[in-house]
Amino acid sequence: MKEFQLKYGCNPNQKPSRIFMENGSDLPIEILNGKPGYINFLDAFNSWQLVKEIKENTGNVAATSFKHVSPTSAAIGKKLSDRLKKSCFVDDIEGLDDSPLACAYARARGTDRMSSFGDWIALSDECDEVTAKIISREVSDGIIAPGYTAKALEILKAKRKGGYNIVRIDKDYRPDPIERKQVYGVTFEQGRNEFKIDAELLKNIVTKNKTLSAEAVTDLIISLITLKYTQSNSVCFAADGQAIGVGAGQQSRIHCTRLAGTKADLWHLRQSDKVLGLQFAEGVGRPDKNNIIDIYLSDESEDVLGDDVWKKYFAVRPEPFTKEEQRAYLSKITGVSLGSDAFFPFSDNIERAKKSGVSYVAQPGGSVRDDLVIEACDKYDMVMAFTGMRLFHH
Predict the structure, then answer these.
(1) Which of 28, 33, 79, 371 could bond 166 through an S-S bridge, CB–CB 3.0 to 4.6 Å?
(2) Which of 40, 46, 60, 67 is catalytic?
């Protein structure tokens, strides 16, 4: 297939629209079902690069959940604890522990379910039946993977009344080293960002504490590769083999850190006894449960706990999860990793990171205030590596 005609571009008024290879060669994809759109393909090609690189640099299968050209999360195929399974709404999935790929997607989708609603999925390996079963019951726009088992393809083709977008990509495809795009009729050209993100990148540890565990190395690699395909400015918190909070597209670095930190906090709080013990009213579906939990943990908790409304959502009225209780719960969290796509200009980012249990940091370095950032890390006995490489993505 040399080109594929799209219904429209980013918006319905932007016509004509197509994808094609500028050199006249065949596209590196096969559309197995549906009719993906312009933004679908932006998500597809960015997300595929992310999972491909995570697998290459960690040795683990990987999955990501994308929305509007940024990942909501990315994860490797580690088994989920019973607590995390319940938090991610996959505790009823048979065979989950036997499918690393399903574990990876369950983690990625379950991290920030509000943002993942209507996601684009990328898998590093052939989609299996268990992974397809998880995807089949989630609201999603489409998927890209290097292959699909016959049963997985059958399950996925039944989504969205048969219109679910399924793309197979040639896993051996390598793009040209020079890439181009147009803005306002002007052509931009640059070398592709082929920068390799692996353990070697984390050797320059600038803090007093230089003990970087193997688990932290993996989490920092996941964080940095996630940032490589996240709209800048961006910051990513990671733990237990997955991105747990992504702050994307903010003009201010501290706003990136606050946004990502808040999402990471919610990931932890959703695994608390108070949240896992919520008894929902009969007939409340998974998307509604997710929204209710989000409100329950917010400053607007009375919207679901009030005298006049709680029976719509719960079989048993839950006790409020006060901000004081939440802070006490989060204060016990440690071992979280944090990556940044550019240097931290002020130590306030480290102060905010500490509140979300960050113990490990990777950032380019190069700020005139590097000494203050290092000092803040030393105050909290954090380990920080300077990578020397910015990871802007636009």
Answers:
(1) 33
(2) 67
* CATH T-level assignment (fold) for domain 198-269+330-386: Cytidine Deaminase; domain 2 (3.40.140)
Relative orientation angle of helices 214-228 and 38-58, to the nearest 10 degrees: 160
Helix H or strand E encompassing 130: helix 129-136
Tens of pLDDT, residue by residue over 295-329, are 999 999 999 999 999 999 999 999 999 999 999 99
To the query of whether residue 255 is one of the catalytic residues in this protein, the response is no
Largest separation between any pair of C-alpha atoms in the chain: 65
Q: Where are the domains of the chain?
A: 3-174, 198-269+330-386, 273-320
What's the token pair of residue 250?
């903010």
Q: For residue 68, indicate whether it is catalytic.
A: yes
Confirm whether 67 is a catalytic residue. yes
pLDDT at 25 over 90: yes
Q: How confident is the model at residue 115 (pLDDT cuts 50, 70, 90)?
A: very high
Specify the pTM. 0.96
Return the CATH architecture of domain 3-174. Answer: 3-Layer(aba) Sandwich (3.40)
CA separation for the pair 145, 361 (Å, rounded): 31
What is the structure's pLDDT at 286? 87
Q: Which of 52, 233, 268, 274 is catalytic?
A: 233
| pLDDT at residue number 323 | 95
